[in-house]
Amino acid sequence: MPIRVTVWSENYHERHQPEIAAVYPDGIHGAIAAGLADDGRFEVRTRTQDQPDQGLGDDVLDETDVLIWWGHARQGEVDDRWATAVRARVIDGMGLIALHSSLNSKPFRAVIGSSCRSAGFRHGDSELVWTAAADHPITAGVPSPIVMADSEMYCEPFDIAQIDEVVFISSFGGGEVFRSGVTFRRGRGRVFYFGPGHEEYPIYHDPIVRRVIGNAVAWTAPAARPSHPRIGPERRDKPLDWFRPA
Amino acid sequence: MPIRVTVWSENYHERHQPEIAAVYPDGIHGAIAAGLADDGRFEVRTRTQDQPDQGLGDDVLDETDVLIWWGHARQGEVDDRWATAVRARVIDGMGLIALHSSLNSKPFRAVIGSSCRSAGFRHGDSELVWTAAADHPITAGVPSPIVMADSEMYCEPFDIAQIDEVVFISSFGGGEVFRSGVTFRRGRGRVFYFGPGHEEYPIYHDPIVRRVIGNAVAWTAPAARPSHPRIGPERRDKPLDWFRPA
Amino acid sequence: MPIRVTVWSENYHERHQPEIAAVYPDGIHGAIAAGLADDGRFEVRTRTQDQPDQGLGDDVLDETDVLIWWGHARQGEVDDRWATAVRARVIDGMGLIALHSSLNSKPFRAVIGSSCRSAGFRHGDSELVWTAAADHPITAGVPSPIVMADSEMYCEPFDIAQIDEVVFISSFGGGEVFRSGVTFRRGRGRVFYFGPGHEEYPIYHDPIVRRVIGNAVAWTAPAARPSHPRIGPERRDKPLDWFRPA
Amino acid sequence: MPIRVTVWSENYHERHQPEIAAVYPDGIHGAIAAGLADDGRFEVRTRTQDQPDQGLGDDVLDETDVLIWWGHARQGEVDDRWATAVRARVIDGMGLIALHSSLNSKPFRAVIGSSCRSAGFRHGDSELVWTAAADHPITAGVPSPIVMADSEMYCEPFDIAQIDEVVFISSFGGGEVFRSGVTFRRGRGRVFYFGPGHEEYPIYHDPIVRRVIGNAVAWTAPAARPSHPRIGPERRDKPLDWFRPA
Prior knowledge:
10 strands, homotetramer, globular, Class_I_gatase-like (chains A, B, C, D), Trehalose utilization protein ThuA (chains A, B, C, D), about 30% strand, ThuA-like (chains A, B, C, D), alpha/beta, Rossmann fold, Trehalose_catabolism_ThuA_prok (chains A, B, C, D)
């Protein structure tokens, strides 16, 4: 049973800036999806913010095991209801992978509960992505460091809540550091944030980055497809009488 | 400099059900505030859902170091913007104490990021609240167990995200268990959830419960009053050149 | 490739107290091993404290993927070197399952780093073991609560360090509570503590308890057999020159 | 009531290598103690491995609220009993600050429970120490980054168990990264590891490093002096009968 992956991105830079379109002719979502296409475990589709209902809806989410999210310039325009819907799905078991500037996205912030702000940024820097959790499945087959000649610097303090595991830590040409791969648990769902991926650089064409994302899809996927029962707490009218000694 | 506490409650049961009004003639918020009044460290006011703007607003939150929240029957009617506002304040350092049925409140869920559902409930049960974190400041002067002849049972699994510390665990007459005192960190803010407090029982008149809440106010209060700067990430145009050896 | 399980116990009560021998004629280790025998994933052997070298040695540990430990009356006599050896193996990936009174064992305390003391105990009580982590693999197929008519009470505060996940919480006939199923991460290794298992009661004959232990073996087993390389930190004589822009 | 600090170091390099003696004429312990001397909150003494009983003993530990540990070349010769004793004291509330190469010390490893190995090292590199936990008391008055022209590189993966908070993350001239300030909780005790401090460089003379260490002493100090009761679990012969409804 394949893992059903929905790759969502805002699809704005690619359509409005020729130099970005040159890097991602099929969109950032297209490049990410292409990177997952060869992995027999995944069934992949893309959705974008410029589609009706911003590409989302119950029908889409009902058939999504893992949602990959890339947003940047138009994150403020994402409807609040999608943040709420994504959070509800994660709680019921859907995996969520937030990429790069999506640390500021409404769905990611709704799931994490803190500002998720990076303390700073700078375009046009080199990045080294070091493995910090040596045996984490997301690091399988990934060299340490991953070397990126061109990337965007994000830096500490990274205002994230209590994390589960630090999987990657990056340093940049300017010396800054950033926890660039971190995991979280929310309800039944697993969440992974991965730092690299500025739109100006062909990062999602990099086979190593594609391996990280593929590993993360497999790791965040729920063990069983969620049945999405909308159950509330159960009323228990009687105590467990047998528990009390006679 | 006193800690400025705002006690917020929905003030519904007390006004519509005579038997609840008999237990809390000054409202649940009034009883909680009265319990904090004798502690010289606190400057306390109350606000309720039936006030204009549901008792909230920037002016209120600007002058709140710790927000205590009690909601139940009308939590669905709380405006989403208050969940967003409370979350933003917590991230900037405001303490948040969510009581009893407020595990289902919009602000608490927004801060935590999971469903926060208890698996079940039952009115009219006895509760024992055991200290699990022996030296936590919230437990200072608190006996273990706290004995409650009449309480409402909540039970595991309690769907909360990764917690910081388990401070209290309760058992009930029916044998169920519940992590009834848990802490979280979000941004600069500290968060505490405390289980006991069903409206039918005079739990907030109990001096031991008042001590727990007072301890929790002192513990969640920010070290310094937040200045609420709405800063985004800083653009760093230059790398730290001095970092590179000549 | 089967998971190689070594079930270690002190084998003292069974040999010196007829009433315990009646409950565990093949020893506590024998009952635990029998409970794992039908699971085709495991290759099981037993070792006991009254054997040469207290049943341990590099040859045993070299062929152990998961070590189950049960100690009680003679834990003070376990050689310190076994605590050190078990800790080193866990760091390299061996799974460790500590049962019941083994919270006070030298190997478990060496791995955890705190006193691991329960605040109290009482023989001859009923126990309810409630699932707290609803989707944890260790809870698969396990009812909540597990009902034990006869068990030994342990209670909070349970002095364990920061835990990874609370999987089970027990309540007892006397109303006490105890985090009776908790996980930890140490180096490459996974660790699980499970509370039930006093020697006077036939707890390890219970098919549900056997399921918990089987699930825990599968969950703590390393993804790959550790190669046990005794590597120290690597000397890196040169910085990554290519990292520096020209 | 001042915080009683014991600064322990092995005092080996300083006595055997003239070039190290030139950097630390009063020993590494002497420089660290001098850095704490001006803070009116502390009562400081030094102890070294070349003293009788390796500078330790119940009399020393009985009067220590916070123990600072620096070891390197002779860590293998530290008696195992001191690792056990330090761990027992931390569990009872003593603060522990492990510096630099003391990640490999017996007491630190006994408290943490994992190998605590850095993946690599290199002398003679520059280091930037970035604040990752913006409001942690240990970072008060500390610039981000702390700039060290000469330091020793340690790098990820850093094999530490689940940590409490990441306070500092360093990058090095070669691009490597390291979680250089991390906290842990064990029993009643607080533990802090701080990375910088290679013996060849005058790091402990740096006023900013001294501020970090002073902050860490204040933060790890127990709220009340431990009474060191050697209590075991309490036998509770009777259940809480009043808990059961009539």
